Amino acid sequence: MTTSAPGQTSVLAGLSRDLAATAEAVGRSVVAIHARRRIPSSGVVWRSGIVVTASHTLNRDEDISVTLASGRSTTASLAGRDPSTDLAVLRLEDAAVPPVERAEETDLQVGRLVLALGRPGPNLTASLGIVSAVGGEWRTWQGGKVDRFVRLDLSIYDGFSGGPSVEASGRVLGINTSGLARAMALSLPAATVDRVTDQLLSSGRVSRGYLGLAAQPLELPDALRERLGLPGRVGLVIVNLEPAGPAEQGGLLLGDIIVALDGREVGDYSDLLAALGGDRVGKSAVVQVVRAGEQRSVNVVIGERPAKRGR
Amino acid sequence: MAAHRLAALAAGPLGAELSGLADSLRRITVHVHTGRWGHGSGVIWWGDGLIVTNAHVAPGAGAQVRLADGRMLDARLVAREPDRDLAALRVITTGLPAAVPGEFDGLRPGELVAALGHPYGVPEALSIGVIHELTRDHGTPAWIRADIRLAPGNSGGPLADVYGRVLGLNTLVAGGLGFAIPAPVVAGFLRRAGLVPPGERAA
Questions:
Q1: What's the ipTM?
Q2: Smallest CA–CA separation between A195 and chain B, in Å?
Q3: Which of A161, A165, A178, A187 is catalytic?
Q4: In the predicted model, is pLDDT for residue B34 greater than 90?
Q5: DSSP notation for A230-278
Q6: Which of A92, A183, A198, B152 is most buried, judging by how many CB atoms fall within 10 Å of its CB?
Q7: Do B127 and B162 touch, CB atoms closer than 8 A?
Q8: Any CB–CB contact under 8 A between B173 and chain A?
Q9: Helix/strand/coil for B59
Q10: What is the pTM of this model?
Q11: Residues 6+ apart with CB under 8 A from A198
């Protein structure tokens, strides 16, 4: 007992066929990456011979192999990884796999149908959902810059991270990860993937500015704010300084309250991270602090964040 | 404008097709009752009263099944393969609307699928999703894994394509995915049990 013959026109059947055709076409550029113990993780052929995946799914940096959609296996070398955006880039020995077609930024719209593809083994996997929320630029908890906030409304299964989020027409909106926000399906937009891929391919790492301090937000007393003419309600009190780190060498002290960096107000930790892009390394910054009830300016030469191995 | 067109689509053809799909699945799906709390589903495989379900839905020698038309019938167990979690039941009646089994080989991840069953005892509930993965064991169909919301009570019920063809029997939920036994595996089980479709019986 069927509703209609397979030949008949039907909205539902058309949608089903289109979704499967999209999954099949883009699936040719989705690979399985063998770099962890339990099951392989998913990756996307982003450019010719270049595979992008989620950094947290790679448990090792060497001895990585990749299974292509055709079932063939090839070796891959890690070009670099950026845990702060949860992206990693591999160079494939076999460049014969077609790269995916990227969506435009204007395609990032709430409500768009999205297929999340994966290959956590020999088979292609698909799940269906929608773009749930789109926001502006944001910082991950590790300080990585992501150009747009893209939340997906779909179920997260094995192989989700590192696979592509694909618009129904077959263009790739971004790389999926569940590793940046707990149990939330996020897509790292194509612009971010491109930027990080460029950096990882050219230098093997994403360089980030570094001050060598730990700080906590602190509400500023009204009297102090009024006396010093401080615009913000919150500053960051320095609670730890790395010995001989950039902040200590510049003369910052434990207990200093950071209120601005290069004239820009600092109200929470992400403001500080935002001011520490890779382009700032080696340059001098003016850190405005409150020390012993008085305002001071301290010049600090921004260092480079030490490379941390790991996920 | 676009929103109006989409709403018209959802309220018109798309909605109508989904309810048509639900109707056609409802007619071939039975509610299997075993004991006081046992709830499961089954699929009318042949119109002569042969119903297939999961072995874990029909653990005993018989069960009661409720048809879509409301009739409650006694069913007798005629075959069972616990290893493959399949069972066949027979009710004494004829002329039932029977499932049209789907193929396995042409299926692709991303295809829309629908399930009808009795999750947590809720009668005749429809769920929709997509095929997540098609797995084989030594080359023969093993599972259709679906990105679809299923629950206990869906067991033994149909996983169908958009045309209402039964692709498999919903059997378990693991890691959030629905696992269905592909229709060709069900057909193989019936053959091994010596059960023959009504048209193929010797006079």
A1: 0.87
A2: 30
A3: A161
A4: no
A5: ---SEEEEEEEE-TT-HHHHHT--TT-EEEEETTEE--SHHHHHHT--G
A6: A92
A7: no
A8: no
A9: coil
A10: 0.84
A11: none
